[in-house]
# Entry
Amino acid sequence: MLDLLLTNATLPDGRTGMSVAVQAGRIVEVTPGLAAPAHETVDAAGYLLSPPFCDPHFHMDACLSYGLPRVNQSGTLLEGIQLWGELKPTLKAEDIIERALTYCDWAVAKGLLAIRSHVDTSDPSLLPVQALLEVKRRVASYIDLQLVAFPQDGVLRREGGVDSLQRALDLGVDVVGGIPHFERTMSEGAASVKLLCEIAADTGKPVDMHCDESDDPLSRHIETLAFETHRLGLQGRVTGSHCTSMHSMDNYYVSKLIPLIAESGVSIVANPLVNITLQGRHDSYPKRRGMTRVPELMAAGVTVAFGHDDVMDPWYGMGSGDMLEVAHMGLHVTLMTSQQGIRACFEAVTTNAAKVMHLQGYGLEPGCDASFVLLQARDPVEAIRLRAHRLKVWRKGRLLAQTAEVKVKLAVQGRPDEVSFLTPAR
Ligand code: FE2
# Structure
């Protein structure tokens, strides 16, 4: 007797009429039209069953703090950092925890079950670190939360920055972070990349660095990150996040840089909602898009994922934990509007993000965790177009959230009495 049997599901790869059998929290079979006894059988009605959404880049210590103590007027990254600096001395651990737990509720409801969050290590008290380690413990049964030691004020620029970061890692923070473009000079930025990669090599931890979050085409720390990854044998363990300066770089230089990134096995995380909002702020017209070169990186074989980065905080006032919204903005900013491009954007918030996070047991194959989301859409393109409702969200065979199928009642004479927004049959 199976624990759970889903029938008549469509999978992201296009297979239809699929059954997914679950036993003891794992997928045991994926096959068309299976009829087997199960404690619970769910008819997916032809809707899309996807592995859960994953956010490979987030700031959970700041989330839902929008307006505290004031709103970012210029809309720039630098005012956001300044504003966060004003907020930090007033933060209480219980408030950070409460806001983070609320966000995790939103995440579960949106089928977002794995989050890599940066956590500010600049203050020697490590208050945000302690708070998010507590959150990680509390959400462990329903969200995979990874933490990145993030020296927001610059690991070298801030006195005691290296010591604070190292203590955060000792406390159990999973990943080594960095912010080379915010160090005092280009050379100090490069030195920070070298130092942080060496810490990762010594501790066996992965690296995920904010890298070149700037419109400055000469911000080239990604080159140093790729070089250090190669030099220290960290291939497959290193991620460069944002990399927005690549948008503004000279094409000739990029023609050398992208193969270097691919060769070093560095993955890239773009953050479409926030990159399009924070970058280009110093431009008059035309205003740059300020997002990294996603299709070109993907074409070179680099793993590229999309993150949410911020939700209602000093840098970004919008958001609800919806990775389909992230993918939706991603395809617009990158002009990845072909069917293949849109599907790649869906992968950027599912499989590619899971790869960046090194998630074990992720996917819709036998042997994987029975963690998946049933969407009110019939394929990944439709899911993004509609930012589709999450009908059911399971983690390891356990139902965590559900929404009744949404149809709008229509009272227009001579027209159907319901609207679903699904693509009309041709
Ligand atoms: Fe970030």
